[in-house]
Each structure stands twice: as structure tokens, then as C-alpha cells.
Amino acid sequence: MIESVKKACHIISCFSSEEPVLGNTEIAKKLGMNAGTTHHLVTTLCNEGVLIRDHNRRYRLGWKLLEWNNNVMFQQDIYDKAIPLVKELIHRFVGTAHIGMFDKGEVVFVLKVSSQEASPIHTYIGSRKPAYATSTGKVLLSYNSAYLQETISRGLSMQAPNTITDINKLKKDLEMVRKVGYSVSNNENSTGTYGIAAPILSYSGKTIAAVNLVGPVSYMQGSNRSMIIQSVINTAQSISQELGYIEV
Amino acid sequence: MIESVKKACHIISCFSSEEPVLGNTEIAKKLGMNAGTTHHLVTTLCNEGVLIRDHNRRYRLGWKLLEWNNNVMFQQDIYDKAIPLVKELIHRFVGTAHIGMFDKGEVVFVLKVSSQEASPIHTYIGSRKPAYATSTGKVLLSYNSAYLQETISRGLSMQAPNTITDINKLKKDLEMVRKVGYSVSNNENSTGTYGIAAPILSYSGKTIAAVNLVGPVSYMQGSNRSMIIQSVINTAQSISQELGYIEV
DNA sequence: CTTACAATTTCATAATGTGAAATTATCTTA
DNA sequence: TAAGATAATTTCACATTATGAAATTGTAAG
User: How many domains does chain A have?
Assistant: First the structure.
């Protein structure tokens, strides 16, 4: 555990959409660090292109991160192969599709695509939601008890009217997900939205990600609900096959 | 200059689309570092979520980078304001539009949007090209002599049939760019493509970025060439105005 | 011009990262 | 399946390096 590297990471994490520009002392205060130390770290990060220094001697995130990010994308085998398949989904129906992966009790969205007419959804690539409160998350939990354990240990809290906050109820729900092969999130994560998700399997048959389609409750529960479910499952299966998974 | 942070950055930069997965010793060799030291750094980066460790104990880039990246995006004032304007451009014409900014002798593309029917262009968000060989780059060079100096000092080399490799020729070209207010790259950067770029100015009137439209030589030089030029210039001006620049 | 606050630099000291070597794990090949 | 080869990980003494208090310089506001 190398302290200075850890600190450097924390410094980068200080920046957000709310606070895109920070001064040296601001950073130091936020992290409870000495201003001199902070300054050394910040200067190093500037030299590496990770931060950029203003003419006002304030700091912002730099280009290096864009470069790194692209490599995260490429690295995700799943990514390239999934894009066209997910796009098909949003052309067939109106809504927003995500691919989510599990990390530390949460779902991280690694892909987001919306139909032109879709109502806006508050997610973005890289953003996170509690696993137990999302359709993608519940798929991932239902196929991996270690994930479930990790999630439960962090506690369940109300996110929207129907969030499942009872552990036994959650386990029942996940059992059902395993049985039917898809998960549903109805007003569990944000009010008014309804998601349907299905598992993406790696070549080895392990559930490594989930695709979903999210839309307004009324639309998703409407006449083509069963068609949507089938399509989401099909998309997930196609992606799995692209990844080399062979159905038994 | 904090060594361990510098090293950590270099480790992250080791990963690329060609080598998305690396082992500890591979990294160490690539950077000429001790394997033990590398291991400590890599472990720290894993704990921070910047890297992910395989079940084979090999490493890939992690989620943290996605999170950070999103903040780079948000932070770019230019970004939010520019997207709708650039989209207009690619709806009017067929092609790929970029916004590029200068960094260390190169253009970094911070935005890329293509028309549905556009032929693929080998760029992506975060990718780089030599400044002297691209339309966006030449705009940035023509308004900033420090940029030009930096670029020249790194040398000019052939990128495509028409790349300008002579310093004086380049200077002449940049003079013209300043005069007409836009730049043209005709087979200078990749064979068969033609780009037209115009400057984006900040509130203070400084050229901070450039927009371009890229397409096949035949199309771009065709009947609506002058209309394209005018539109690119207009787009650039609209973005500048969005950023608070007031024309004198 | 003065005051106040933030950024930067300095420097002695303590803490921390370093790398050679040992150990353990994994993969290859016979 | 065992032996050999290669890679990952751990250990530890030492030297390097980061640390933070304080001094200095820079900047903004009144």
C-alpha cells in the first residue's frame, strides 16, 4: 500500500461535476492533508497530464484521463461486441439500455444507449447504483452469492417507493430471477422507471454482466411487455455468444 | 516530483488497446522497474479500483478510470455547450465532426460525432494526431506561436501523401489560415480524407480549441464545399459565443 | 497601500518506498 | 504426474523520498 499513490488517487477523485476546478488548499482541506504535501502531489499529477493548472493556479482534470479511459473501453472485450446488439434493442423499443457490471456492492454502468425519444435517465457511463435496487444489479446478485454477501453487508436502504430493503424478500426475488432468467425493477431505484434485465455470460458460463432496458413504468408494463422481456433476454444471449459462451 | 506517483501513472499508461491485459513482470520489464516495486504499486492501484486483478493474477484497467473520465467530460465547459451545435453540423452534411485541443505538439480529440452514413474515421475521444497534419491542429497552431514552436521542435514527418513537412511551407499555410479564418487538410493526415476546421475562442478571445468536419476528399471538395466551410465557421462561432466570447 | 489569504518553497526529520533475494504459485513439457 | 521453468508475491535492511511546519512569495480585495 503505497501512500503517495493512494493520496494521488484521492486527489483525482476530489474533482466532480459539482466541483470541476479546485485550488491547492481546497484539495488539502477536503482530504485533511498538509498543503505542502498536496502541492507536491498536484504538481506531479500536472506533469503527467492527469491534472491541468489554470492561469489562476487552480486545477482541473486533464487529458491523460481521456486517454486512459479509452483503453478501459477497448480492454472490455464485452464492449465492442455488445454495442451493435444493444443498439438493436433501443431501435426496437423506446427507452434506455445499459450494460452493468458488479463492483463493491454496486452496479457500474459500462455502457448506456438511448433511443432518440427516450425520457432522460439519470445514469452515465461509470456511474453507480446500489445493486439490490436495480434490474441489472439483481441479475448479477442472483447468480453470485459472493456478490450478494458483499451487497448485504453494506446494508439495504430505501431508494424509491418499491426498493426491497428486507434481506429475505430480496433473496426470494433473486430466486425468482434465477428461475425465469430475467429481473424486473419496478419503481425500486428511481420513481417512475421500470427496468428489465438479463444476464450476460462469459465463455465459461459465468455471469459477468447484465443488459437492461429502462423506461417509464406505463410503457414498460404496457402491451409489449412480454416482447420487451424476450428481446432483452435475446440480446443478452447474443452478447454471451459473441463472447464465446456456448449454450448447453 | 513524487516518484511513486509518476511510476503509477506510467503503469496505467502501459495498458492499451493492443495490450489490455498485463502481468506484473511484463509491466516491470516494459518500464525497466523492479518486479517487487511494481507489485507494490500495482497492488495499491488495485485497491483504489484503478486496476483490476484477474483470477490469473494479471491486470486490467479498472472502473475508477470510467468515473474519473466522466468528470473530465463534465468539467469541460466546452463539452456540454458544444455537443448540440456540433450535432447540427453532422445533420446538415455527411461526415465526422471533431473538437480538438492542443497538448504537447499534438491535437487531442475531446469530442467526436459522426453522421449515420459517414465512412469510418480512425479517431476516438482521447486519441491524438500530430498537430501540423490535421485541420484542427493547424487552426490551433496558427493562433499560438508557442504551440507552433513546441510542434516544430518535435519534428515534422510524412503522415499521408500531402503532409506538410517543410517548416516554411507550414508557416505559409498557417498565415493563410489566420487570414481566411479556417484551415483545410487535404490528404495530409490520412489518405483519402479531407478536413475543414475553424477556431473556438474563449471569453477572453484566445483560441482554445477547434471544430472540424472530416469526410472523403471527393465529397468535401464537391459542390457544397463553400457551404461546408461557412457552416464549420458558424459552428465554431456559435460555440465561442456559448463560451462567452463577444465578437468585437 | 495595506491586509488577508492562497500558493509555493524550504529543509530537517521520520517515514516510506526500494530492490535483491527468498518463497510460493502456476504453467509447460516430458 | 513430476520436474523444470517462469512468474507472482513476500520479506527485510537500507537509502531514498515524502512529509509538514514554517518561511516566503504571490494575488486579490478593500
Answer: 2
| Residues A210-248: tens digit of each pLDDT | 999 999 999 999 999 999 999 999 999 988 877 655 443
Of A68, A75, A124, the CB nearest to B60: A75
How much is the pLDDT for A248?
36
Indicate if B116 and B168 belong to the same structural domain.
yes
Q: Looking at residue A131, what is its pLDDT?
A: 96
Taking only residues 91 to 150 of chain A, the set having a beta carbon closer than 8 angstroms to any beta carbon of chain B reads: 101, 103-104, 108, 110, 124-128
Residues A122 and A233 in one domain: yes
Place of cell 430475467: A182
B2–chain A Cβ distance below 8 A for any pair: yes
Q: What is the pTM of this model?
A: 0.75
Quick one: A73 and A165 in the same domain? yes
CA gap B67, B50 in Å, rounded? 10
Nearest Cβ partner of A9 from B2, B50, B66?
B50
| Same domain for A86 and A203 | yes
Same domain? A55 vs A134? no
A122 min Cα distance to partner chain B (Å)? 13
* CATH code, domain with B52: 1.10.10.10
**Full residue range of the structural domain in which residue B39 is found:** 2-61
